[in-house]
Amino acid sequence: MPNASVETIRHSTAHLLAAAAIQLWPKTRLGVGPVVEHGFYYDMDVRDAEGQPVRLAPEDLAQLEGTMRSLIARGDAFRRVEMSMEEAITFFQERGQDFKVELLTDLRTKGTTAVRPEEQRELSEVPDVVSVYWTGDQFVDLCRGPHVDTVRDLGAFALTSIAGAYWRGKDTNPQLQRIYGLAFATPEELAAHQQMLAEAEKRDHKKLGPQLDLFVFSELVGSGLPLWTPKGAMIRTLLESFVWELRKARGYQRVEIPHITKKDLYERSGHWAKYKDDLFKITTREQHEFAMKPMNCPHHTQIYARKLWSYRELPQRYENTTMVYRDEQSGELAGLSRVLSITQDDAHIFCRIAQVKEEIQKIWEIVHTFYGAFGMPLRLRLSLRDPQHPEKYLGNQGYWDQAETMLREVANENAAVYVEGLGEAAFYAPKLDFIAKDSIGREWQVATIQIDMNMPERFDLTCVNESGERERIVMIHAAIMGSIERFLSVLIEHYAGAFPVWLSPVQVAVLPVGERHVESARALVQELSDAGLRVEFVDATETVGKRIRQQQHMKVPYTIVWGDREMASAELPIRLRGQEELLTMARAAFVERIQKEIRDRSI
Ligand SMILES: [Zn+2]
Ligand SMILES: [Zn+2]
To answer: Is residue 104 within 8 Å of residue 49, measured between CB atoms?
Structure first.
């Protein structure tokens, strides 16, 4: 089947992995083996011929891979056999595949094999026939298919890692071993992906962040709560100021709010019912219930609601860069990508429905200018209603039609290429999602624009229109970076820590060769600082060679070694980040060069 989809190839490769495991360790009990992004995994309780558990080591992956390749050489076909539910249960019982028996029993009694309520899909009828797939005459698995025709039609694959996983994700169930693999249609695609992974590992922000002294975690403070060092805080401030500059030019105003609120606010907004478990809750000494804010929108509605607005005063555009707090499970926390304290560069626009399009156009410009400054191309998704299920969405269908039309018009007028995500809208509003591509080709969802017709309803937000009547307004949510923590994790990896000059916490390092050069080196530092550059004086406590290596390690863009010759010369010898040769420039020209790089936010 040369035209098999990559999903089918990945899925069929998972069968092959299970077949190899059974061949090597015959009493292995199989869990499930789904397709994931770029590959697949298979959960199994690995047991040898005596039924003894086998703890897999990374070396075993090579052996498994070798066995998979020998199975491919045999060229077995995938063969479908249907049997009744009863037959299938006996069939897997006889083969000692208890987990498959459990799945089938669930399917028979509950009509579903899903464990988590959110995964549960109601089957109107319990199927009375199930299918199994044979690979050759040795290996059989419970499966709906489809597969490639024979194992020779598989693409390129590689097993990557082993992890522990509880059967069906419940920690009271037995722990299985999860074997991960990559699978692609061609060896070239697999190689390109592996190369990208190797590059991503070198750039890992969890390693680079502390190396560059940007942030730190403290056991006393807790995991998921990054602490920002002076250098890290500097970068945050620069990013924030950039966004503010773009917003200020478009009529936004700054607001500020407390980080806690009475629970009443979230009861009114509907968040309490929906997200209660994700909130950090506080009970005051007077037994009042408060919560740390997990988002800013409800607070901002109360700033808008402070007076009755005339339509002439709209839009009101509020910007607020501030932290929100979400109670995530500690196992899910990872570097800056998942944290408990999230800084949002948040903004809310309160306007009439007829003003939405113009406001979106403004946000569009901000998003493109911002991501353009990092050389990150953007892709766009229009997240719309599911036309099959209009009842799932809140509010007036006429509003939805208008809102969706406006989003599409803005995309078209900007000649943007976009995909339409039917059914991807939030239940209260359609949205525009921007997806940025980093320097090694990974994609990240970044900014989002949401047109919200729900919150104004819940908080009864209005303006007085031309006829003197109260008119319901619309609220637009528009974060540019989204979470600054997550954006910084992307940015650190995008640049591999070598930030452009305008973002570098230290732009120039000055290294006096010895004691007698210190005084004039300090004078140079002062002169450059006065010109608005961020300059670090690196005292002569170590050898020059060692200090130069330190600056390279910290990815400082410009380093100046200051000795006898330099003191006597009118020109500066400048060592550029990542380059061997020195650049010699007059002081004034050097200062001008950096000032221009900062001004232009050169990449
Ligand atoms: Zn299958
Ligand atoms: Zn919001």
So the answer is: no
Residue 499 Rama label (left phi>0; alpha psi -120 to 50; beta): beta
Catalytic residue from among 263, 271, 477, 575: 477
Report the C-alpha gap between 551 and 554 in whole angstroms. 5
Q: Cβ–Cβ contacts within 10 Å for residue 205, how many? A: 25
Which CATH architecture is the domain 6-200 placed in?
A: 2-Layer Sandwich (3.30)
CB of 430 closer than 8 Å to CB of 385 = yes
Note if 231 is an active site residue.
Answer: no
Distance 432 CA to ligand 2 centre (A): 14
Answer yes or no: 517 catalytic: no
Assess contact for 408 and 345: CB atoms under 8 A: no
Cα 9 to ligand 1 centre (Å): 10
Residue 333: φ, ψ to 5°: -80, 135
Nearest in space to 445 (alpha carbons), one of 431, 462, 459: 431
**Given 299, 348, 385, 517, the catalytic residue:** 348
How remote is the C-alpha of 329 from its chain's centroid?
Answer: 17
Cα of 190 vs centre of ligand 1, distance in Å, is: 21
Over residues 418-476, the pLDDT tens digits come to 999 998 888 778 999 999 999 998 999 999 999 988 899 999 999 999 999 999 999 99
Q: Does the domain spanning 232-257+302-494 belong to CATH 3.30.930.10?
A: yes
- Look up the CATH number of domain 501-600: 3.40.50.800
Q: Give how far Cα 405 sits from Cα of 361, 382, 399, 413, Å.
A: 13, 11, 10, 12
Question: Active-site residue among 43, 60, 346, 452?
Answer: 346
* pLDDT tens per residue, range 50-98: 999 999 998 899 999 999 999 999 999 999 999 998 899 999 999 999 9
First to last CA, the chain: 46
Active site residue 302: no
- What six digits make up the tokens of 130? 């199930």
Residue 3 confidence (pLDDT) above 50: yes
C-alpha span between 279 and 272 (Å, rounded): 8
The answer to whether residue 178 is catalytic is: no
- The two tokens of residue 327 are 């109670």
